Amino acid sequence: MFARTVWLVVRKDLTVEVRSREIAYTTLFFAVSCVLVFAFALVKEGRAITDAAAGILWIAIAFSGTLALGRAFERERQSETLRALLLAPAPRPAIYVGKLVGIVALLVAAEIILIPMIALLFQAPLLAHPFWLAAVVVSGTIGFSAVGTLFAAMLVRARSRDVLLPVLLYPITVPVIIAGVRATAALLEPELDVAIVRFWVALLLAFDVVFVTLALWTFEPLMTD
Length: 225
Known about the structure:
It is a single chain. By secondary structure, the protein is an all-alpha fold. The chain has one domain. The protein contains nine helices and no strands. The chain has helices at residues 2-20, 22-42, 52-70, 74-78, 82-87, 92-121, 130-154, 161-187, 194-224. Helix 3 runs parallel beside helix 7 (130-154), helix 3 (52-70) packs antiparallel against helix 8 and helix 7 (130-154) packs parallel to helix 9. The protein is globular, with a radius of gyration of 18 Å.
């Protein structure tokens, strides 16, 4: 029942998104615009600041992710189907996991476009170690989205949710962003230190476990209230 509910929520969100492309286009446009602004500001005479690519990548992920998270429950709120979704005979943590998987899928799709773009504009060897890069980006995206999905659900009825979401989200996800930046910067070194990268990936996975576990514990009572 849990897995089926997760699949139904993910399929519903992705089907609606494929038809409307509202969140995907907005998120990608915002992320690309953010990267271009930094590229014009930091690339001088064809040379970029050392290790700038790592910070720019995670800034773009954080900002575009916040935009996507702000719309996570917007369709249910606008069509007044949120109450029906919560009254359905399905475990509420499964609804959270379904929303989380959908957000992560959208962000990963945007990151597939962002990473080659940043590598090109900032002359950074981001694609030199694709396995480790995928591990860093995906684990960081899950940790960021796990907290953001919970707060998006909590603020779905608030009038100032667009302002409150980043105010609540960024202080808690700063460790995830810092770990992601440090891991990505380690991948840009001329000689890869696997031990350092493995440490940061393990730290990101630990954040994922903690954030997802806490969100699963608090989602049901939060939505009940």
